[in-house]
Design brief:
Layout: H1 2-24, H2 29-32, H3 36-64, H4 66-86, H5 90-116, H6 121-150, H7 155-173, H8 190-196, H9 198-222, H10 226-247, H11 254-274, H12 278-297, H13 304-333, H14 335-352
Helix pairs in contact: 1-4, 1-5, 1-6, 1-7, 3-4, 3-5, 3-13, 4-5, 4-7, 5-13, 6-7, 6-10, 6-12, 9-11, 9-12, 9-13, 9-14, 10-12, 11-12, 11-14, 13-14
């Protein structure tokens, strides 16, 4: 039991460090590239790398256990962070951000597999998601403050790389006898899992992607100062932290919760068009959605690596595709059209949630 608790601490500290490092470059992007196109490439490279590696990471976790995949993910994160600290060449930075994303994808899939396979998965997933969002918030804030205070743009990257290195060292000395490979060896029929739960993957793409849409649209839409924008965007993650810690203490049926949350998120998008308080609404609902989705998937006692890989892949896909599509709509049809279309997409999740029944498993609704 003690080994299990120790490794759970490694998982939670690891996701904090990985997420903080991923956001540490955001406040200082101009120092790494001048043109907006290069800045966009640096930002997107991380999500592309994570998108590529989450599903393979989940499959590897099923075959070999979560521990080795978590360690490889942390190792890649640390290596990329060190190189990012010492270079500002845009091409190299894009490549390193891609490698950092690959490491994050491996870590996230394996860590989620471990968390969701535990008997106390609902409560532990709350702690995990809280640490994830705390990392996102502090990555932005600490990196920005350090860059201004010491006139060193990469200092935040260095700090969170060092924290990641400490976590990597902890993972190397922590017992892992209780974190075992899947009995199936990761040989599940991937197409069957995708087909039987297509509505769930769709909900992850849309509902997680919505948070990326409002974050990417709001700077140009609102014309607010960067510090004000940072506070609102950070507020969304803080709202998620509060929600995931609260909702995991309440028994709930996952499918209806996802459906109702999608409806309220669609309304939240429209509210965000009127007031930035919508960020708090969307952050709170996103926390409910993610916990409900993980609770639904926990109904499978085996193949958690594969399922969490698919879940993470769908989430990253939403973050990569929806903000881009919304940006195109905003440029061609205006911001109102972009917000309305995004809200409509959220509404489609209300209709599609639960389609095809719940094959081949369905937690009680």
């Amino acid at each position: 039991m003690e080994a299990s608790k120790a490794y759970l601490a490694i998982v939670c500290l690891g996701i904090f460090a990985v997420m903080a490092l991923s956001n540490a470059i955001v406040p200082v992007l101009p120092a790494f590239a001048g043109p907006s196109a290069w800045q966009g490439a640096i930002y997107a490279a991380y999500f592309f790398g994570a998108f590529l590696s989450t599903l393979p990471g989940g499959i590897l976790a099923d075959r070999h256990g979560s521990v080795p995949v978590i360690r490889v993910g942390l190792l890649m994160t640390v290596a990329a962070g060190i190189l990012l600290f010492f270079t500002t060449t845009p091409v190299v930075v894009v490549i390193m951000r891609g490698c950092e994303g690959i490491g994050a994808g491996l870590f996230v899939a394996a860590a989620l597999s471990y968390v969701n396979s535990r008997a106390d998965h609902t409560r532990m997933s709350g702690y995990y998601m809280a640490m994830l969002n705390l990392g996102l918030v502090l990555g932005l804030i600490v990196a920005g403050l350090l860059a201004v205070r010491f006139a060193q743009p990469a200092l935040g990257i260095g700090v969170f790389t060092l924290i990641s290195l400490v976590v990597l060292g902890g993972s190397a000395v922590t017992g892992n006898r209780q974190i075992l490979p899947s009995k199936s060896g990761g040989t599940a029929n991937i197409s069957a899992f995708i087909r039987d739960n297509v509505w769930l993957w769709y909900s992850a793409v849309i509902l997680v992607g919505i948070t990326g849409v409002v974050s990417s649209l709001y700077p140009k839409f609102s014309h607010d100062a960067p510090d004000t924008l940072g506070l609102w965007i950070a507020g969304m993650s803080i709202a998620t932290i509060v929600t995931v810690l609260a909702v995991t203490r309440i028994p709930f049926p996952p499918v209806p919760v996802i459906r109702w949350s999608a409806l309220f998120m669609a309304a939240g998008v429209l509210i965000t068009y009127v007031t930035p308080l919508g960020f708090i609404i969307l952050g709170s609902l996103a926390g409910v959605v993610m916990i409900a989705q993980m609770a639904y998937l926990s109904g499978v006692s085996d193949h958690q690596g594969l399922l969490m890989g698919l879940f993470s892949t769908a989430s990253y896909l939403g973050m990569a595709i929806l903000p881009f599509l919304a940006g195109v709509i905003a440029d061609t049809g205006g911001f109102l059209a972009a917000f309305v279309v995004t809200a409509i997409l959220g509404g489609t999740v209300v209709v599609t949630t639960g389609w095809y029944g719940c094959r081949p498993y369905c937690p009680a609704e």
